[in-house]
Structures are given as structure tokens and as C-alpha cells.
Design goal:
With 314 residues, the chain is mainly β. Helices cover 6% and strands 50% of the residues. It starts with a helix and ends with a strand. The N terminus is likely disordered.
């Protein structure tokens, strides 16, 4: 009789494990890549028949190096779902989700913090040691997050979501190398139709006297002398923008990057070589190891960035 009862119990347990009503006790998506829906602000991860969905409706992902901490809320939601079959992106992103697969279990985050650490992604030219920003990596981690689920609560002290990468167009830096100088302020600039590289140069560096061979005039970049500024504009840039008492409001400036102060014999210097040119002089300006910065982001112009040539007469 005992053998018969044991057999019945075993049969009941076996049947209960095969009824398709599966629940999950722990979730981990550490090795899964973050994806984004193209039509909304859903970030998600898919793993076979599991999904982790982060609705980042009210989150602004910055285009600079920064850190921000937010709260999980009705507009910044985190949801885990278990399905009865394998998933595709259409299951998550379609306005009208497909009928299958079917959700068999759902966890909804009811509290916790969202920590986003944003850093610039760069490519480095190893020939001249210049760098360009090609995007921003946003590392997302949830802290002290509480999930509400069918059979209670699940709490994670640290719950990594992953890296969300936003591409950025590298700054053109497509200059003519033909420099112009304002007659009054002596400010030097190079421009094209949408960008400018402006140098508030120390006047002692531009002298109508030829420099000895391999002996350029040298000045350090700083906020007071040899201030170097890059600007990217949203409209057509002309020479009328320059040599005024103040820069005009138009065209609007999209981005402004300012060179970090130089260190003698190490970084951030201006070198000027002067030669006789016809009835005047030609000044060749080279920017050495300059770092340009906007907020907490920066990039390098390179070891020897040829700023351009300036022609002057006596």
C-alpha cells in the first residue's frame, strides 16, 4: 500500500511540474546586450523566453560625461516578463504586440534608484594622437530595487541593466588653414560655413620678423592669453560674425569647446614660425598637444595640429 501511495505522490509532483505555468525565482541579464525600440523610449534585453524592459520616458541621456541618479516611477518603469515561447523585438516594440508568445509571469519594480553613468566613446588616431568623440556610453544600474511578483517580493541591492550607447557625429574640423586676423583685437580665426576655430592670440607671437631656423615663438594656451575656442554653428557662418565688439547671436552656436590651459614643455602650446613672403610675412601657426573641453567631455587636437597660415604686411 505504501508503494502505491508513493507512486501516486510522485505522479502528482511530476504532473504539477509539467503544466506550463512556470514562474521564475531569480533573474540575470548580465551577458545580454541592451537594445532600443526605434519608435519609443523602451530599452530592453531579450534572453530566450525572458525580457527585461526599461521604459525611460522621462530620462535625458546627456551628450557629455556625467552621472545622474533617478527614482523608479510610473514614467521610468522597470518590468521583467517570462513568456511561454522565444521572443523577438516585435514582441516588445510593436504598438499592437503579437498574440504569441504569452506572458506567463511578470515582475514590476515598485521602488529603487536608477543610476546612469555617461562617458564619451572615442577613437584615437595613433599617428598624431588626436581623438574624436563618436558617441556616448550610458551605463545603467538599478540600486535597492524591489520587484513585486505573483508570489511576493524580490529585492536586489544592485541590479545591473547594462550599457546603452548613443552614436554621435564627430566634429568636422574641416578648416581651410587660411587664417584671418581682426585689425583691432588681433584675434585670429579660421572658419568654414559651419564651424570656427578662434584664437585670442598673444600679440607678441605675431611679429613681422623672420624667426631663426627651428626657433618658433612659443606661447601657452590659457584663459587670458592664447585662448583657443572651437564653435559649431546651426546656420551659415560668414566673416561678418568676427571682429565685432561682441559675437552676434546669429548664427546660433550648437557646441562650444574651449582648450584646457597648457603646461610648459608638456601640453597646450602655440608655435609661430615667421618667414619673409613677397613684400610681407607668412606666419605658420601650429597648435601642440591641445585638449578641448566641453563640460566634462574632452578631445585632443593631436601632437601637431597645423592651425594655418596668416599673411601680414609691414
Amino acid at each position: 500500500m505504501k508503494k502505491i501511495l508513493s507512486l501516486l505522490v510522485f505522479t502528482l509532483v511530476l504532473n504539477s511540474c509539467d503544466d506550463g505555468d512556470l514562474t521564475q525565482e531569480n533573474i540575470s541579464f548580465d551577458a545580454v546586450e541592451v537594445q532600443k525600440c526605434t519608435t519609443n523610449q523602451l530599452l530592453y534585453k531579450l534572453k530566450d523566453n525572458e525580457s527585461l524592459i526599461f521604459e525611460a520616458t522621462k530620462i535625458v541621456f546627456p551628450t557629455e560625461t556625467s552621472s545622474q541618479t533617478l527614482l523608479i516611477s510610473d514614467t521610468n518603469r522597470l518590468i521583467y516578463r517570462l513568456y511561454n515561447d522565444k521572443l523577438t523585438s516585435s514582441t516588445i516594440c510593436e504598438l499592437i504586440p503579437p498574440a504569441t508568445p504569452i506572458v506567463t509571469d511578470q515582475w514590476t519594480a515598485t521602488g529603487g534608484q536608477i543610476v546612469i553613468n555617461s562617458t564619451a566613446k572615442k577613437i584615437v588616431n595613433t599617428t598624431d594622437n588626436s581623438s574624436k568623440i563618436t558617441g556616448y556610453n550610458h551605463n545603467i544600474t538599478f540600486r535597492n530595487v524591489t520587484f513585486s511578483k505573483a508570489n511576493g517580493k524580490q529585492v536586489y541591492e544592485t541590479f545591473p541593466f547594462g550599457d546603452y550607447v548613443i552614436s554621435a557625429t564627430a566634429l568636422p574640423l574641416a578648416f581651410t588653414k587660411v587664417l584671418k586676423q581682426c585689425s583691432s583685437s588681433k584675434q585670429v580665426y579660421d572658419k568654414n560655413s559651419s564651424e570656427a576655430l578662434i584664437l585670442d592670440i598673444d600679440p607678441s607671437l605675431i611679429v613681422n620678423t623672420a624667426t631663426p631656423l627651428n626657433t618658433p615663438r612659443i606661447g601657452l594656451i590659457s584663459d587670458t592669453k592664447n585662448k583657443l575656442t572651437y564653435r559649431l554653428f546651426s546656420g551659415l557662418l560668414t566673416d561678418d560674425y568676427f571682429c565685432n565688439n561682441a559675437f552676434p547671436a546669429n548664427p546660433p552656436v550648437l557646441e562650444e569647446w574651449i582648450a584646457v590651459a597648457g603646461v610648459a614643455n608638456t601640453s597646450g602650446s602655440i608655435e609661430v614660425t615667421t618667414t619673409v613672403f613677397g613684400n610681407g610675412f607668412k606666419h605658420t601657426l601650429v597648435i601642440k598637444k591641445a585638449k578641448l573641453k566641453k563640460g566634462n567631455s574632452d578631445f585632443l587636437l593631436g601632437d601637431n595640429f597645423i592651425y594655418g597660415e596668416l599673411l601680414t604686411t609691414n
